[in-house]
Give the backbone structure.
Amino acid sequence: MAILHTVNKSPFERNALESCLRFATEGASVLLFEDGVYAALKGTRVEPQVVSALSRLRFYVLGPDLRARGFSEERIIPGIKVVDYAGFVDLAVECDKVQAWL
Amino acid sequence: MADTIEVNGKQLAVDEEGYLANLNDWEPEVANVMAKQDNLELTPEHWEIINFLREYYEEYQIAPAVRVLTKAVGKKLGPDKGNSKYLYTLFPYGPAKQACRYAGLPKPTGCV
Amino acid sequence: MAEVVKKFMYLNRKAPYGTIYAWESLEVVLIGAAFDQDVCVMFIDDGVYQLTKGQDTKGIGMKNFSPTYRTLGDYDVRRIYVDRDSLEARGLTPDDLIAVPFEDMETGEEIDNIVEIIDSERAGALMNQSDVIFSF
């Protein structure tokens, strides 16, 4: 039943993450990639929303996109798992559908 | 298929399937010219459907798929006309596709 | 073997005209409707702007496709949902939106407007119930 939600927009430019968090239900997974990775960083304005959502949703961030933007795992909010491309594929396979918050 | 058709001495652009490129180029003679190419003589019954389609497009901005057309014709002109048999008899190449082409509309949305 | 009917959801989040998403989505819905699947269309975020009444595109040289939403019922789309929070956040009410009629050909039952305003919780549940979500 679980949905994999993907967010590839910066939370400071678009409401993709905000909407995703509003509609995603308990047990769903959220993968942050491309400009979406900024939502995974500690100390941002959206950190409280992400931390609060971590109690009901599983969060993942795509490592290559994170490193491309100059950030390493130490800067990530605890509880968010870093995955590589193969991990992204595994997630998409495990979940029975994908909702892309474009 | 040529990329233009000649209607009343004017060359009108059509797409690769013979639909008018510009909706506003349409005049009744367009339908006559297209029908002649298909060896068809247009009767008042044909015109009733062509005019119906033009009104439908005017209202909804879409050329309806065949089953939507059938339903809508049935509602407006009665069940005697809102059925596949009647419409296919008039337009053997497919009532939505052929009649839309004569009416100067784009290819129906939802017809594959 | 009986044909498997899948539940398709078309999820619209973009305003019309500024980008091509809204029009592309509408075309895909209408084309997909020919395949006899269980289809629902949902409007959230700026997607609710697609349904506003009184759109007039003469001045911008683009096709006004808002009247086409009124044919969704004729294309057998029976379920159309709008997220209430998205509407309210934009200062809109259900009265600002186009009505989509539906007529059941078997029973002859006529419904003036099948557009349903729902809360986020219901919207999330509907996403969960779909087999496939097409995002626009």
About this structure: Helices of chain C lie at 21-32, 84-89, 120-129. The mean pLDDT of chain C is 93.
